[in-house]
Amino acid sequence: MTIPKTGGEQGYLRIATEEAFATPELIDAFRDELASPDVDPGFFSLIGYYLDHPAERPRFIAKALNDLGEGRIADMDARGIDRQILALTAPATNVLRDVDRATMVAETANDRLADAMRQYPDRFSGMAACAPQDAKRAAKEIERAVTRLGMGAVIINSHILGEYLDNPKFSEVLEAAEALDVPIYIHPNTPPPAMIGPMLEAGLDGAIFGFGVETGMHALRMITSGTLDRFPRLQIVIGHMGEALPFWLYRLDFMHQAGVRSGRYEVMKPLKKGTVSDYLRSHFHITCSGMAWEPAIKFTQQAIGEDRVLYAMDYPYQCPVEEVIALDAMDMPLETKRKFFQTNAEKLFHIR
Predict the structure, then answer these.
(1) Pairwise CA distance, residues 142 & 180, whole Å
(2) Can you give the CATH number for the domain in which 232 is found?
(3) Where do the H-state alpha helices sit in the chain?
(4) Chain-centre distance of CA 115, in angstroms?
(5) How distant, in Å, are the alpha carbons of 22, 37, 110 from that of 27?
(6) Is residue 7 part of a domain?
């Protein structure tokens, strides 16, 4: 097996756009939430596993999440990754019920990430964390992180204590991202208590299925609620090959239009742009995190446009070098492959 190299000799750089890190403040907050007598069952399933399970994979992940230095750089070099766009690991602040603590965790994470970006300016870029539970303070932190710390996006780890970004209470977060011309990356979370039961009992609540279902629904709510009509310039990123939405587009369009015509749901109104697919093609960018599968990548490029499909590895949760090798070998024109691996990310995340 030939190990891929950094530097771009293949005709493009590899920019990985959904790469996670953690901080001591976040881990301490996670442990306190885990100790709560009314801990969220999805959070317990997810973080209880990754923090404390003795198996090799969670031990590697727990160590790698906390490394913003030479260990991470070495892992990138071993996989041919030129740059990581880093985000505070899920569920980040979204699960924290103490809003002041959630705000502190976001602010310290942004400061720590900014330090790493200054130390490795050619290897690390970042997404701004915030605590959307307090939308006003979250908007101020987004502005600080973008204008003063150099972040190129905002990370929101899907539902916020069971609520979604289409709720008007979060409008200031969306306003800040739109005004600053930075995308919001909606990263998966485990489904909230009202949704998780049948998945959890079957072991399907996490990345195998529950993540995609929950986050795809979040993205779809942003469309069908009319939220994106209120924020016409807002751009959103979703991973894992669009959390299956591109593959459902025909049916989503058909059934959404049928629902609008029938007036079946009071909440479902006509949209300014028309169809669900119109919004997916104008507001969304999709990464292949965890989905290193050539047929799915090509289909998504065809469905929403090759300028809106980007590479991601999903480090450290899923990062075998064999996936990089497979994507390098895709039967795809070099210019399209360059967009996928490099230039789409440079444009979207303001990498210069």
Answers:
(1) 9
(2) 3.20.20.140
(3) 24-34, 41-52, 56-65, 70-79, 99-119, 135-147, 171-180, 193-201, 210-224, 227-230, 240-243, 249-262, 276-283, 294-304, 321-328, 334-338, 344-348
(4) 22
(5) 7, 18, 15
(6) no
Q: Given CA atoms 160, 163, 165, 167 in this order, what sign does their dihedral have?
A: negative
Domain extent at residue 84: 15-348
Q: Using one digit for the tens of pLDDT, what is the confidence trace for 181-239?
A: 999 999 999 999 999 999 999 999 999 999 999 999 999 999 999 999 999 999 999 99
Kindly tell me the burial class for residue 38, based on how many C-beta atoms sit within 10 Å of its own C-beta (0-12, 13-18, 19 or more): exposed
Residue-wise pLDDT for 122-154, tens only, equals 999 999 999 999 999 999 999 999 999 999 999
- Closest among 333, 331, 278, 336 to 311, alpha carbons compared: 336
| pTM of the predicted model as reported, rounded to 2 decimal places | 0.98
Which has the closest alpha carbon to 307: 274, 273, 282, 278?
A: 282
Has residue 3 been placed in a domain?
no
Q: Give per-residue pLDDT as tens, 71-92.
A: 999 999 999 999 999 999 999 9
In a domain, 295, yes or no: yes
User: CA–CA separation, 101 vs 47, rounded Å?
Assistant: 18
Q: Residue 53 has which token pair? A: 């399970």
- What's the domain count of the chain? 1
The answer as to whether 9 is a domain residue is no
Is the distance from CB of 99 to CB of 134 less than 8 angstroms? Answer: yes
